[in-house]
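Summary of Year 1 activities. Much of the first year was spent building the evaluation harness for sequence design. The harness presents a backbone, in tokenized form, and records the residue chosen at every position. We chose the following record to illustrate the format because it has been used consistently in internal testing since the harness was completed.
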């Protein structure tokens, strides 16, 4: 089969996703150094991470609406440029307040990217959307493969600022490739009134879509757990398991290696047997991972827990395919943007909650709470999956009888 332009777009979009994720992924492994250099608490760092991810989430809905008005490619170029600039400012910020402002700017710039890119890819792969979106999302997971280890290596050799500067340079290179390899395309709603489209009534109306609330609530729990991992897993491994920063970064990378490998497979599983089954399986694995990490103190158990977290965090393609299918093409980007804003915004609380609990109690309580929330999510997701599967079977039987 000849190489198609769609594959080029998919690969460059995955690379861009990798680059913009790397600018935020680089922060987690450096948290122990930030705590020391800026003399701040885990609560403060956790709150700042929550703020960055909350702004990242809040930009999803307007990014989708703006993309429908001016074109997806334009928004993606602006998003990558803003991310590059914010990351560069983060690397040179001389004080913690300025560092915090740069983090918030980074969240805002990066938040413009993902929803628009998801629609950009989905429009070109109608027959195997879940698999294509899994490949796109795996670009972000691949960032977890090398960013934590490389960040610690650069910080050991130079400083943590050089680690962040390297991620900014990487975005710049990918931005140039994206501009060169993609072409402008007409917007799907060139005459839309942005003021009216961005009015709160519209996203609230989208959230009232029948059958949306329950899966959205389930995905919020998954996003909360994801945030707890990306914000504090290296710090947890250093402080709770007493590992070195290098080994903690390696295990952190392992989580994202497994996620990158599993994500297309989970997307394909969702295409074949239903996204509900794929999401429920991921929640089960996440719950097992957190439970193992806080209840067992043997190295084989640690590796098993890391493995469960890695595969469990590969739910992205199935989630995106599930929600994308709820909207028609003209409303797909803004609709998915609204949904992703909600679950990423609420999930961003995972940073400040886990950091605060670790400061006031210990890591067992902090990550134990995440395991408990995931257990609730598993029960709800299981019931939802069984119920929707039974309804689908009845509809199939009815059509067959007719």
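For this record, the design step produced the sequence shown next.
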């Amino acid at each position: 089969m000849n190489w198609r332009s769609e594959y080029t777009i998919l690969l460059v979009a995955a690379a861009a996703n990798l680059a913009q994720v790397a600018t935020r992924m680089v922060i987690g492994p450096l948290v122990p150094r930030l705590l020391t250099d800026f003399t701040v608490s885990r609560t403060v760092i956790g709150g700042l991470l929550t703020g960055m991810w909350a702004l990242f989430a809040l930009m999803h809905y307007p990014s989708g609406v703006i993309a429908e008005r001016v074109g997806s490619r334009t928004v993606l170029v602006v998003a990558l440029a803003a991310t590059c600039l914010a990351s560069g400012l983060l690397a040179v910020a001389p004080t913690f307040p300025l560092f915090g402002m740069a983090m918030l700017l980074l969240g805002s710039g990066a938040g413009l990217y993902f929803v628009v890119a998801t629609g950009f890819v989905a429009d070109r792969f109608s027959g195997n959307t879940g698999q294509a979106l899994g490949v796109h999302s795996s670009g972000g997971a691949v960032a977890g493969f090398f960013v934590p280890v490389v960040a610690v290596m650069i910080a050991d050799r130079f400083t943590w600022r050089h680690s962040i500067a390297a991620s900014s340079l990487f975005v710049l290179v990918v931005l140039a490739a994206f501009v060169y390899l993609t072409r402008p395309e007409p917007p799907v709603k060139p005459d839309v009134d942005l003021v009216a489209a961005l009015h709160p009534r519209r996203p609230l109306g989208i959230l009232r879509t029948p059958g949306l609330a329950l899966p959205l609530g389930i995905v919020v729990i998954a996003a909360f757990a994801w945030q707890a991992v990306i914000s504090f897993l290296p710090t947890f491994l250093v402080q709770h398991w007493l590992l070195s920063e290098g080994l903690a970064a390696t295990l952190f990378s392992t989580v994202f290696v497994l996620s990158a490998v599993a994500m297309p497979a989970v997307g394909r599983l969702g295409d074949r047997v239903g996204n509900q089954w794929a999401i429920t399986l991921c929640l089960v694995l996440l719950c097992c991972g957190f439970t193992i990490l806080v209840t067992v103190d043997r190295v084989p158990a640690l590796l098993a827990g890391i493995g469960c977290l890695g595969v469990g965090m590969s739910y992205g393609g199935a989630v995106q395919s599930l929600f994308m299918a709820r909207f028609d093409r003209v409303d797909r980007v803004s609709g998915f943007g609204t949904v992703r804003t909600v679950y990423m915004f609420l999930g961003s609380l995972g940073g400040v909650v886990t950091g605060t609990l670790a400061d006031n109690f210990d890591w067992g309580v902090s990550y134990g709470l995440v395991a408990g929330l995931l257990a609730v999510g598993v029960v709800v997701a299981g019931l939802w999956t069984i119920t929707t599967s039974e309804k689908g079977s009845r509809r199939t039987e009815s059509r067959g009888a007719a």
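The chain has one domain: 5-181+202-395. Quantitative recovery figures across the full test set are reported in Table 2.
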